[in-house]
Amino acid sequence: MQLHGTSTIDHNGHLSIGGVDTVQLAKRYGTPLFVYDVALIRQKANEFKKAFDQHGIGYQIAYASKAFSCIAMIQLAEEEGLSLDVVSGGELHTALVAGFPPERIHFHGNNKSLAEIEMGMKAGIGCFVVDNFYEIKLLEETAKKHGKIVPVLIRTTPGIEAHTHDYILTGQEDSKFGFDLKSGQAEKAINQLLHHPNFRLLGLHCHIGSQIFETTGFIMATKKLFVFIERLKAQLGYTPDVLNVGGGFGIRYTEEDNPIPLSHYVNDIIHTVKEEVHRIGCEMPEIWIEPGRSLVGDAGTTLYTIGSEKTIPSIRQYLAVDGGMTDNLRPALYQAKYEGILANRANEKNSSLFSIAGKACESGDMLIWDLPLPEPNHGDLLAVFSTGAYGYAMSNNYNRIPRPAVVFVENGESQLVIKRETYEDLLSHDLPIKNALTNS
Ligand SMILES: Cc1ncc(COP(=O)(O)O)c(C=O)c1O
Ligand SMILES: N[C@@H](CCCC[NH3+])C(=O)O
């Protein structure tokens, strides 16, 4: 088993993260518990920064906060000098409350409401990533009302089908996101925005998908964008100041995944842009990227307590944990695969295969199939790795199961950054029916 970041096995055979014993973490904060290795997040941010710095160009690395958003995480992104991608009023609110500089916030989303647009404009965010014609209309009305000139990027779909799960593909023509290049929609949007007094068109955006292990898709998308830019240059005399090529850089969930260094994506994208800039003869744009998973994914580990067990002779041994699809929807949604170990007995030999079930009333609530483990005991601690992206972020209260707590660990210390939900929290929005009220 390959451990990530600062994770090690200590002399007691306990998994330790950030210099903190996970057995102690489970005792102190309870389970299920998300544990984030802060040093690993900083390391990933630095890998991106170093790669860009070598090229001497303008750039922004915008953390895609949909992967994991909370006040502490946004503050960590700010400490690391990142920009921020938000996709909703809720993510924007979190960023603003966290004190994130609004001018480095980019607002995404395929159906931004008027209220969200007002919120972003009032805050003075860095740009709106415009997704469709209806949004242009809302932005225009709001900008006029407030007398603003709004910086915008246009989200395009370049027609690239990256090798990943269908539900996390986004760059293909038949997508709910963005303006299609081929049908002329993107050009029409540019015509609407380019000389408009209330807009400042910064440039173009595309995002081809998520959990991508090759640079080919990014190279192809960049080339397609430049074919388009070449036409814009000839017809409108326009070339973009910014090219945002999205996120989607792959991480290791299991031994089947072989991620390439983050610098490879950056280098290949920048080389391609430089070549294309030379080819069509325009100024080098700033390059922006939007990594989510690759910044926080493998920095997250979930700790669960093992409870019930069921053996079906000659078929399967099930072990149930105190969480499941309510804190990690990815296996149920994408058949995503994970690895795990017994965090309190990490040095012991595996005896056989166990399938890890969640506690929700749903047959599909299985976290891991056929995981090799030592003979487990009730109360053992299971650590599931690489749960930092789209884990807590997609958590839910199915079966009225409270969301777990989240801790940051670094340099031998832990800090609670999201409190565990209580039953009172679950009921905090409930109201009794009228009759019950009048009868009481
Ligand atoms: C527009 C956009 N940017 C960035 C991301 C972040 O992707 P990832 O977490 O794979 O880096 C996504 C999610 O796929 C996205 O839709
Ligand atoms: N939620 C997806 C990726 C996000 C896609 C966002 N466009 C996942 O867990 O893999």
Description:
With 440 residues, the chain is α/β, with parallel strands linked by helices. It folds into two domains: 8-30 and 299-427, Lyase, Ornithine Decarboxylase, Chain A, domain 1 (Beta Barrel), CATH 2.40.37.10; 38-294, Alanine racemase (TIM Barrel), CATH 3.20.20.10. The protein is 31% helix and 24% strand. It has 13 helices and 21 strands. The protein has helices at 22-29, 38-53, 71-79, 89-97, 114-123, 133-146, 185-194, 216-236, 262-280, 293-296, 330-334, 423-427, 434-439, and strands at residues 8-9, 15-17, 20-21, 33-37, 59-64, 83-86, 105-107, 127-130, 150-157, 179-180, 199-205, 242-244, 286-289, 300-312, 316-321, 340-342, 352-357, 366-373, 381-385, 405-410, 413-418. Strands 4, 14, 15, 16, 17, 18, 19, 20 and 21 form a nine-stranded mixed β-sheet that branches. An eight-stranded parallel β-barrel has the order 5-6-7-8-9-11-12-13, surrounded by five helices. Strands 1-2-3 form a three-stranded antiparallel β-sheet. Helix 3 (71-79) links the parallel strand 5 and strand 6 (83-86). Helix 5 crosses helix 6 (133-146) and helix 8 packs parallel to helix 9. The longest helix has 21 residues, at 216-236. It starts with 7 loop residues before the first strand and ends with a helix. The mean pLDDT is 95.
